[in-house]
Amino acid sequence: MVEVMYTKETKPFPNNSLPILYYPKAVVNLLDGPEAAQRVLALFEKNGYSNGWTNGIFSYHHFHSNTHEVLACITGEATVQLGGPDAQKYSFAKGDVLLLPAGVAHKRIDASNDFKIVGAYPDGLEPDIQKGGTEHYESIKQTIATVNIPAKDPLEGEKGALVTSWT
Q: Domain 3-159 class?
């Protein structure tokens, strides 16, 4: 089951009219053993999301204006805030996946010591990191509006939640 979450524009964070997709425990079956990160990244890559990495979530609000981003928690748990400083906080735990539309602010509020995620981008794009300044706000919003909707859902390919929720 996929949960759909909406954010509102909260200057200086543009967010996106496309919803965040939250897939609880969607990759938990891939997480046993030492190659968990590689198995999750291989699933993403099979569905067109590459340029993957393993790390955490920054402890400051940020977003990417030039690409969407998929994140999967492979160990531990964290509280994340999605949408900016006044937005709701969510639990993000082992096996959970988030698909963040371009422009959606995200921040790690706190995390267990073993919290680790993998991330990737549609078509292997290289993300920019925006911290919510107002100087180029309108041009950043225009960049976000030009980001293409991916052809496939990061987990379920052509028949996934992205296809029905983002088109």
A: mainly beta
